[in-house]
Write a structure and sequence with these properties.
The protein has 351 residues and is of the alpha/beta class. It is 40% helix and 18% strand. The strands form 4 sheets. Strands 6-5-4-7-10-15-16 form a 7-stranded mixed sheet, with helices on both faces. Helix 1 (35-43) packs parallel to helix 3 and helix 2 (50-67) packs antiparallel against helix 3. It is globular. The chain starts with 7 loop residues before the first strand and ends in a 5-residue tail after the last helix. It binds 5-S-methyl-1-O-phosphono-5-thio-D-ribulose. Residues 48-51, 94, 159, 161, 165-166, 171, 198, 237-239, 249-250, 315 line the site of 5-S-methyl-1-O-phosphono-5-thio-D-ribulose.
Length: 351
Amino acid sequence: MTSLYRSIEWCNGAVRILDQRLLPATTIYRDYTQAAEVAEAIRTMVIRGAPAIGAAAAWGLALSAQSSRSLPMGLAWEYLQSAATILRESRPTAVNLFWAIDRVVNAVSNPPPQTSEELFTRVLHQATLLADEDISTNRALSLHGLPLIPERALVIHHCNTGSLATVDYGTALGVIRAAHEHGRALQVLVDETRPRLQGARLTSWELLQLGIPHEIIVDGAAAHLMRTRRVDLCLVGCDRVAANGDVANKIGTYQLAIAARAHQIPFYVAAPTSTIDLATNSGDDIEIEYRDAEEVTTCGSGRLAPDGVRVCNPAFDITPADYVTAFVTESGIVRPPFATAFKRLLGTRLP
Ligand code: MRU
């Protein structure tokens, strides 16, 4: 079953993106025709979620090549490189962004295109392939996750990892969706995910459409509910997995993992292999994005904190590999020791 809404698609020479900043109140699609506009949409989180921003960057490159169709090949190639640079600078933590750009640029470099028209055709083909693969990858990953979900399960989920965070179907939320589709009796505790409320706004919106029972909880309630209710597992997505298994994901993931460990609850991370970054040794080497103070001090048009107050707003944290029970990938479940398991899984593949 495909989702009711597509987070992103290529539509008549434009990249059409569902504006996630306005959900769940308003459903508005925006059409972009320039790579720089797509970079800005990623930066301002019109579109967010690691696999979704990878697809956005790939189609952003297609927009650049499309604008250069009447130019000499050398100039079109230069423009593609500068579009790649602008897109790379849009957000720092999710490796899928860089992976997608490298994948498209490498695929069209060899053999070199002869004309700017050929460049456009090939970039668009590669970007569309990448987006289509995202969907099949997520479906495969979700089915691999099924054995981890008991017949009746209470699951804690953090942030949004569903159709909105991907091209379709989702990763961690994909596993939950597949479990529901396979008849599991699921109840999901949805972390609201301060400060941008991806859980309260987006995950609950998706779960409602799918008919999956859930309750929104404030992030600080997770440990209490682990102690007072029979939580079976935590299931989260991720933005980058280092070669040693350390996980960068939405802020609050680390404290959830610590609480899960304290209550002997399994902590699973859903990660397409495009999120595993063998070139990054450990979580210490992952750049953590810090975002604007307004995300914390305001809510909609309302002010929450005193004017001029100082704010520290890391958007991601690192969960050490030791806290992760297993990864769910499109190639199967990966258990510790992760460093050797990843090498076996990915071979010598380096970005
Ligand atoms: O800042 P966001 O909303 O882009 O952060 C998204 C997350 O942290 C998700 O958990 C992650 O990208 C996995 S999405 C399949």
